[in-house]
User: What shape does this take?
Amino acid sequence: MGYVPHNKALSSLYDFTVWLPFDGRSEHAGESGKGHGFVQRIEDENALVASRAESLGLVNSRVIAGDNGYLIEVRFMVGSFTWTAIPPVATTIAFSEQDCVRLVELLFMISLSVG
Assistant: This one.
């Protein structure tokens, strides 16, 4: 888990991002897209995945291929952080207890679908 920064004029956006590593090769390598990207394939088959992704504000997902495995990268609005220079303001979209449970459920369902 971590943040992926995006610099804008006089502000910085930090997307809350989760990387799920898997061994082996993936037939999904290179799949990405704005919106739900890779996770869209799973959502189309599973309404529970779709509801979790929507409630967490899924922004983007993609599969990144490596030499010995691959990563699934998933970015969310919930948990993201924004810093604005003028006026100096920091804003975080905080996780609720329910959001934490939904995040764990969603990541578990993604790992079951892929692995």
